[in-house]
Request: fold
Amino acid sequence: MNLKQLKEAFVHAGAKRLYAKPLAENDNSKNQVYFGPDFEALNLFPCAELVAENSQRSQIFKGKLEFSWLGINGALAEAPGAQLILYPQYPEVRFSGFLRGCTNPPSPLMANRISGRILFLAVTGDRRIIGFVVGPSHVIAAEICSAAISPSVGVFFELSLPTIPSDSSSRAKLLAELGRINRLGWIDSKQLDSTRVVRPCCAPQCGGFTLEAELGIPKNSVAEPDFLGWEVKQHSVSNFTRLDSGTAITLMTPEPTGGFYKQFGVEAFIRKFGYPDKNDKPDRLNFGGVYRANCRQPSTGLTMQLNGYDPSTGKITEAGGSVALVSDEGIVAADWAFSSLLAHWSRKHTRAAYVPSMRRTEPCWQYSYGSRIRLAQRTDGLRLLRALACGAVFYDPGIKLENASSSKPMSKRRSQFRVASKDIDSLYETIEIEEV
Reply:
């Protein structure tokens, strides 16, 4: 089998992306395989929900992978023990358990100390990982070495697959679409529902819905990138010459994983920590305000804390830690486990396009989108926690309870983590401005 045939075998097995890593002698089943000095590997290889393991000996996260080895005949051999292990104290990620329980594992190559091996890892459309490894004398190893490819994503380099758009082509397609939308001028506000029917939209969040509708993206709450692997973020500006103007950008809307909110429900949470509507809307309780790390919110009396994170070192000190809203009495009103936030961030924000917009309401509700697009890449969960710790990212909920005194009160959930447009560089290693 040569490299071309290997790529074809991966595509036949459902691969959408393909990565390769030259293995050091220590990259084996005993010592685990090193996946990088940060948590960026989570962006590449989707795993099940991260599980924190807190003990006196170690603070780690584990994420189970749906992993199989590809045989030379194209058959797949499942490795049910495969997992990613995140070591926040270093930090680093390692690949473990990839031989355990497998009926046809490549043990001679992966259980021993051999330099010059190449590990291939493909990611499928349904979030499976498929592996293949070659020894130093294999023809594929020679092809990779002769190509002199440098790592492009952490410790990995990405290989193109036949018929699958590369990063450069998906980027070009995204920019071409955003250029087309820019040239449309003012667009009637709309949304594309889950059945792909276009419907009118007249609400503050319609700038994002209108852009998504033009891109053919229906309304959804799926934590996956929007367009060919890119997360598309619209944000309003006062004018198109200043990208750092305008309102804050909503990054994600995860529900709390713990605290009073999780234990007793949103209605009880609002009644305990909320307040009467400040615009005198009758029989309505709100839970809002801006929450930044270590700053008390006067409307609710809650303070955001990052428990188990050391901002001086930028490291997680407790795998079971969380971002928490805490009352003056020490009650945890709501919290988001680090394991949940890390997994959510890595699934959706690997590559993001920030698109400026302006709105007008006459002659009707319409949006226009700017020609200067920011393309942001290279992030991980540790960057998110650093941005939360310094206040660049903040919690800005829009939670309410209407008809609060009636027998059938109606609650609305909206837990938003947001960032000011000028601060998005705190979340990414690279940001490029493209003129479309």
